[in-house]
Amino acid sequence: MGARKRGLTLFAVALTLATAASAEEVNREGVIVTRADNNLNVRTREGSLTVVVTPQTTIRETSGLLQRRTRGPETLIPGLILKIEGDLQGETITAESIEFSERDWRTAIATRAGTTDLREAIINGNTYVIQEEVTVLFASGSAAIGAQYQEQLRAIARNAASHGNYRVSVLGFADPQGDAAANERLSLRRAGAVSNFLRQTGSIEPGRVLSPSAMGEGTTAPGEAAPASNAEARRVVVRIVTPKTQLTQ
Fold this sequence. Notes:
By secondary structure, the chain is of the alpha+beta class. It has two domains: 22-107, CATH 2.40.50.140; 124-241, CATH 3.30.1330.60. It has helices at 2-22, 102-123, 147-160, 180-200, 230-233; strands at residues 24-36, 39-44, 47-52, 58-63, 67-70, 81-89, 92-101, 130-137, 167-174, 213-217, 235-241. It has a five-stranded mixed beta barrel. The radius of gyration is 21 Å and the shape is globular.
């Protein structure tokens, strides 16, 4: 029994060392695209990363050259430019510290406020015109975009500018199987994946893509027929829209 315990201990130590060796201390600068709980989807020059914010993560706001204030995780909002230090494993950084400027935070807040009313108007079915639409279906439990839908998304992105003063609405849905809260999180992951893909095509101005919305299970987009099966319910609806009141040219 003693030999077995020593063997298990040595295995645990080896596993810990291997995990530590695979982690890389990095500094990255990027912009928050979406947020789900304590996971940030951040676009950097090196590509998209998931940034994990833990209770040990130090979050600071800078003002001027010398002023630094400690802030809470609630200040980390989509559109915020930040600097991240932490351990990189694969495409995930566990953040040791996050820093952003007060000016960038104010800009993100203003941008968010400016798009919230418009996004709600689109989701709630207020007066607007749907110019184009694509529905992306997903496998059960997955947020991966199938190859058959990627070209459709590239095509709608290439054509978006032809509609003048447009916006892009991205609504994520899940089927009713399983836990409702988990399904809502999954619907946000799906919407976030499609939103990121559209932004990365280079054909759409990032500011014209509204923040992805989690619609969860058992709901539909305004004017959309209810899905006929669970396979049809696992979807993201992408719409190029031009609201008559707010987006007239």
